[in-house]
Design goal:
The chain is α+β, with helices and mostly antiparallel strands and 450 residues long. It has two domains: 270 residues, no CATH class; 152 residues, no CATH class. The protein has 15 helices and nine strands. The strands form three sheets. It has a five-stranded antiparallel β-sheet with strand order 5-4-3-8-9. A hairpin with a 5-residue loop joins strand 6 and strand 7. The chain starts with a helix and ends in a 33-residue tail after the last strand.
């Protein structure tokens, strides 16, 4: 190993360990209510494990809180151990942190974000790959290639996504030609830049590194600082001031890195094997990277009926009206047999909605705490109705989801079920679900692109 490489590896471990603090602090402040388990089942309808992890058990509140605080302590210990060259202790503590992080992440599907996916991918690479630095370099470049393939769509090739947002791209003339040129430049950078980082001479590597750093700094204006905080130090530590000879043996001596990264790349592109547009149906989207690809809006209608109660719930998430503005999520409830002002109570206090027997039947956190990209994911509502009907088998639940894209004037009905039966209509992660409809030819390309 080159003289400077152990220092570089220590810095990578410290960086990835400290990035966990963002997750743990976020869980303690924002997502804790969704993750905790209570005897009353108050979070029954807002805590959804990810697909393939539906049987993942919950953790009692006290144990979860203790685990999160221990995770923070382990992060600090890992950073200290790496700095002092205590490699076994550093990697052992990093393994414990990553295991707990993976558990709480896949236990809370509503918190899915690209930076979480990427950080977990980097963490697993660091733990499993025998040649850690060269393996991390290969994995990072494969990640950019996956991102480039994700962007080969009408929304990026023709700038449809950004043209649908008022103001277009920040600091870029609000002209279709300029926006389209910038979008294609990003795709070109992510396709060609990794080759320069891996196999180019020193000058080409510096050019590619500076280009990627500029890209991530600019992206703060679009997506906020968290993803750039992960990627910018990673790029500098892996490719900045690297020895000339680090490219030797990247192909022949790093087979595990290419195989592992290739498998992750395949998972990221699995949606191409599923009929329909992943940005519309959401199928296969979260199995890998899921970039912003359309400026989407959705409307959800839920009808819940039993022997004594009837509720009609409407939820909507509008288009972005600016880059620093999140989608506006609105929830309203109509209960014609009750004198309570349920709409005001629900919207202002975020109180769970209960039926006459005091059972929780809807919690507004389903809409208001989910990340924007999965706010109207059919899997979320499939999980919600399944949990609801398992708790109260006699309920009749109707579900209707409509979506729109890139300010297109028409709405497409994605799901319309008068009596939704999720147990007999299971959600399949790796292939199309027959109860999710596909748009017809009258809708634009964004509704069809895989």
């Amino acid at each position: 190993m080159f003289k400077a490489e152990p220092i570089r590896l220590r810095a990578i471990i410290v960086h990835l360990a400290l990035f966990n603090l963002i997750t743990f602090v976020g869980l303690l402040t924002h997502s804790f209510e969704r993750l905790r388990v209570t005897s009353a089942g108050e979070n029954l309808l807002v805590s959804f494990p990810a697909p393939l992890f539906q049987g993942l058990p919950g953790v009692p509140e006290n144990w979860l809180k203790l685990g999160l605080w221990l995770g923070i302590v382990l992060v600090l210990f890992c950073a200290i151990a790496a700095k002092k060259n205590w490699w076994f202790l550093a990697l052992a503590s990093f393994l414990l942190i990553t295991t707990f992080r993976v558990y709480v992440y896949f236990r809370d599907y509503l918190s899915f974000e690209v930076f979480h996916h990427t950080h977990i991918f980097f963490s697993i690479c660091l733990l499993l790959l025998p040649k850690k630095l060269s393996g991390m370099r290969i994995s990072t470049c494969l990640l950019y290639w996956a991102s480039a393939v994700e962007k080969i769509s009408p929304s990026w090739l023709f700038g449809d996504y950004f043209l649908s947002v008022p103001g277009g791209l920040p600091l870029v003339p609000d002209q279709p030609a300029a926006i389209m040129l910038c979008c294609r430049a990003v795709i070109l950078l992510e396709l060609v830049g990794p080759f320069f980082l891996l196999f180019g001479n020193a000058k080409l590597r510096r050019v590619a590194l500076v280009a990627f750093l500029f890209f991530h700094l600019y992206s703060i204006l679009l997506i906020g600082p968290i993803y750039p905080i992960l990627m910018i130090p990673t790029l500098i530590l892996l490719f900045g001031w690297a020895p000339e000879s680090y490219t030797c043996g990247l192909l022949k001596k790093n087979i595990p890195a290419w195989l592992f990264g290739g498998a992750a790349l395949l998972c990221s592109q699995w949606s191409f094997f599923i009929p329909g547009a992943k940005a519309i149906t959401q199928e296969g989207r979260t199995s890998g990277l899921f970039m912003f690809d359309i400026n989407s809006g959705c409307k959800v209608e839920i009808q819940i009926q039993n022997e004594r109660d009837f509720f009609f719930i409407e939820q909507s998430a509008g288009f972005r009206d600016g880059w620093r503005a999140e989608q506006k999520t609105k929830v309203s409830v109509d209960h014609p047999f009750s004198a309570l002002k349920l709409k005001n109570l629900l919207y202002s206090n975020q109180e769970p909605l209960r039926d006459g027997a005091r059972h929780v039947i809807y919690d507004p956190r389903i809409a208001c705490s989910a990340t924007r990209r999965i706010c109207c994911d059919p899997y979320v509502y499939h999980s919600y109705v399944r949990a609801l009907k398992r708790a109260q088998p006699n309920l009749r639940v109707g579900l209707k989801i409509q979506v729109a894209a890139n300010q297109f004037p028409g709405w497409f009905t994605l799901i319309e079920e008068n009596d939704f039966q999720p147990d007999s209509q299971p959600y399949r992660l790796w292939r199309h679900n027959s109860w999710i409809r596909l748009p017809g030819s009258s809708f634009p390309a964004a509704f069809h692109w895989p």
